[in-house]
Design goal:
Largest sheet: 7 strands, mixed
Strand content: 5-15%
Strand order of the largest sheet: 3-2-7-8-5-10-4
Oligomer: single chain
Number of strands: 10
């Protein structure tokens, strides 16, 4: 009997693969490709103009706990999802006037620190030991409260890719009778798209703790070690940088119903994925995995490429343009003296001394004398110029100590002369 050849070789091949016994472990897939990338991308995409139309693609059932917290608190705080640029937390902040120390700041302080690190600085000559970067950062205006913040640009062109792959996977599953996979992928698209649409309909505002009228200036120092940023401005400006956060707020009763619907869809999606994907053939499981992998790869790329850009544009809308002046000091002693000179605080000597203790060795007689002499000159508005009467002190018993004090005072003098000539 002659063998009849199929007119659809692709379908024949796929049907053979469909008979292959293979069960995808949905839990392992969720553990590898799931996580905060999907939620962070969902949130940041909604800050774009027309961003609600670029979130309709299949992802794993993430974000249920996040939306549940919105349902209870009536707002969404995405700050824990915003990374600190690869750092475990934000840089430390030391206030000059108030003496307050903040060990862990928010993501906008990390954003400012990263921007200052990338700026090239003006080198200052002097005794070279370890280079220390000193950056003077100042925002042009006080923070502006605005309920509907947006990033003034369209989403990247590559945002179409996960949408196209998810839709194509749906079509192929229908053509080859993979209804289980089709239903799971379609449910993932709807859950992800509706959740993004709901978040985009919320009011996005920049929230920070306000300061009382008559508060001291908020000037302080971000960072430590080899990167020191002198942040100058009012208490509101500094609070916005070190404690500012983005908040999505519910604007209507309908939005609250949307939270309930999205939470239900995400829970349903997670359960359906667990039950239905193992029932599909190899081809259907591959379609599901391909849509998940594409979405995950896009989200990782999006966060690494655009998170900082989006947050910086929002910060510019709230705070205005940033003015940066950066200098590269040849040693730490000159760097600290430069910070004190640029801070221009002649009254809060106790706080200035605490700041010096944080940045320089403390409890050592030579260093304590150096701090005393420098603070005295700053308090009396005297130029930082020193002679042998400042280092030939009777309380220093050895010539080595006097020589070290002379070197340290000369470091401060050289730094002062360099900055004075640039004013």
């Amino acid at each position: 009997m002659p063998q009849i050849q199929s007119r659809w070789p692709l379908v024949t091949t796929l049907s053979r693969s469909a008979s292959t016994q293979f069960n995808l472990n949905s839990t392992s897939v969720a553990g590898f490709f799931g996580g905060e990338e999907a939620i962070s991308t969902m949130i940041l995409t909604q800050t774009y103009n027309r961003g609600i139309w670029f979130g309709w693609y299949n992802t794993l059932g993430e974000g249920t706990a996040l939306l549940s917290s919105v349902r209870r608190q009536h707002y969404l705080d995405p700050t824990p999802l915003l990374q600190h640029g690869g750092w475990p937390n934000g840089p430390a902040f030391k206030a000059i006037y108030s003496g307050i120390n903040v060990q862990e700041t928010g993501p906008f302080a990390s954003l400012l620190m990263k921007r200052c690190i990338r700026v090239s600085g003006t080198p200052i000559s002097g005794r070279a030991t370890q280079l220390v970067n000193v950056t003077l950062a100042r925002f042009e205006r006080r923070p502006i409260f605005e309920q509907q913040l947006k990033c003034h640009r369209l989403p990247p062109t590559l945002a179409v890719l996960p949408v196209a792959v998810s839709l194509a996977a749906c079509v192929l599953c229908v053509l080859y009778g993979e209804l289980y996979s089709f239903f799971v992928i379609l449910l993932g698209i709807l859950a992800r798209g509706l959740s993004g649409y709901f978040i985009g309909s919320m009011g996005l505002s920049f929230d920070f703790p306000g300061s009382a009228e008559g508060s001291l200036p908020g000037d302080g120092i971000l960072g430590g070690d080899r990167e020191l940023v002198l942040l100058k401005g009012s208490a509101d400006v500094v609070n916005a940088i070190i404690r500012g956060r983005l908040v999505f707020s519910l604007l209507s009763r309908n939005a609250h119903r949307g939270v309930q619907l999205c939470s239900f869809l995400l829970v349903t999606q997670a359960i359906v994925q667990l039950l239905c994907i193992p029932q599909s053939s190899l081809f259907g499981q591959l379609m599901f995995v391909s849509s998940i992998v594409t979405s995950w790869a896009y989200e990782v790329w999006f966060l690494s490429s655009y998170q900082e850009i989006i947050l910086w544009e929002i910060l510019n809308d709230v705070m205005g343009p940033l003015v940066i002046k950066k200098f590269v000091l040849p040693n730490r002693c000159g760097a600290v003296a430069s910070l004190l000179f640029l801070a221009d605080d002649r009254t809060h000597l106790g706080h200035m001394k605490m700041l010096m203790d944080d940045l320089l060795p403390s409890g050592v007689l030579v260093w304590e004398i150096w701090k005393e002499v420098v603070l005295e000159h700053l308090h009396n508005r005297q130029p930082l110029r020193f002679d042998d009467t400042h280092w030939n002190r009777p309380d220093l018993s050895s010539a080595d100590e006097k020589s070290l004090l002379r070197v340290l005072l000369k470091d401060a003098e050289v730094a002062y002369a360099a900055f004075s000539s640039r004013e």
